[in-house]
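Crash report, auto-generated. Payload:
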Amino acid sequence: MDQGAARDQVLDAAEELFYGRGIQAVGMDDIRSLSGVSLKRLYQLFATKDRLVEAYLERRDLSWRRRLAEHVETCADPEGRIIAVFDWLERWFAEPGFRGCAWINSFGELGATSATVATQARLHKLAFRRYLEGLTADAGLSRELAGQLLLLAEGAMVTAGILGVTGTAAQARAAARLLLESAARARPTSPAE
Amino acid sequence: MDQGAARDQVLDAAEELFYGRGIQAVGMDDIRSLSGVSLKRLYQLFATKDRLVEAYLERRDLSWRRRLAEHVETCADPEGRIIAVFDWLERWFAEPGFRGCAWINSFGELGATSATVATQARLHKLAFRRYLEGLTADAGLSRELAGQLLLLAEGAMVTAGILGVTGTAAQARAAARLLLESAARARPTSPAE
DNA sequence: CCGTCCGGAGAACGAGCGTTCTCCCTTACC
DNA sequence: GGTAAGGGAGAACGCTCGTTCTCCGGACGG
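Recovered output after restart:
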């Protein structure tokens, strides 16, 4: 087995276990068992558990944002793209094994004691906010709206994780529609539209 | 020192440490050092760490909801009371040592492995949702609105915890006002008001 | 066929921690 | 004053886990 394949298998196992059980609840032995990569190789690839956690969060950040963007791309209308974010959330929440947002969970677990985790969580949320700001800008809408949509999306992730998935994304989407309409009425660039 | 005072001191220490650092990062020795209550007494009061965690979350749930309700009570207008929730969030976020929502953080840390923590988090969020539903009902507004406000409040807590406090509560309040106006326009009980 | 190197399996080590135990001191009662 | 009960300090125990080490087998070069 070559280096790259082993790395992928380790990160696959890490993602499944860290996301599903929490970071501290998963030992390096668990990663080894699930990935089939020996401890020696594991430590050649990632010198410490902390590095592995960092790599897990980084890779998941890229794939999470890519998946979101790919879904949003399927919609051409700038305002529809904003709503599409919440459609995608609904789809994500319904995936088997959904257990809330990996960064919110990691931050709750280790934000106070691990600079790595705190930084990764901040970077991810900043990137998500920037993405929403891009969407609202493309629709000629304010950055304020993006901030409000961020709150709705974060609230939906948390609530779906803790209280369960039923209806949460739809609620968030309905609220997003209202905020979007309200912002469109006051749209700075084309108020008459 | 009598039993009750020792219990209070232990719970005070537990709250400060568990909330500030996370549950797994705090040992029973840390609780003992900060509270000044010996290990023997500590285990007489709480048979296991799990019980202590449960008591911490229960007591904090009561005081958190009491503090919120006390602030909301100061406002007589039913719609003003709804907005007052977000005023109180702003005040809470600004407290020194604010580190997000204790239940969201605990759930992220232990929701997957501890039934105690998962249950406490669900109970707390259910109680908060019920409270918001009471406020919207008092204003003659729909339960749907309460669900949307819950998402905003949860999103604000998470975002304030991870990205920092600046402006988050004000954003949430602005969004809440818009949703409230929109719901008031469609108010089922007194649509003309 | 023999030696050498690489990687795997898992034992070993050391630290941290939940929980219990030991020892000693204080206090209260006869 | 003697004694028993209770509580405090902290050592001890057993377990988990991150990390490293040891040993062995198998592949490859001479």
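Post-recovery validation: Chain B has two domains: 1-47, 62-185.
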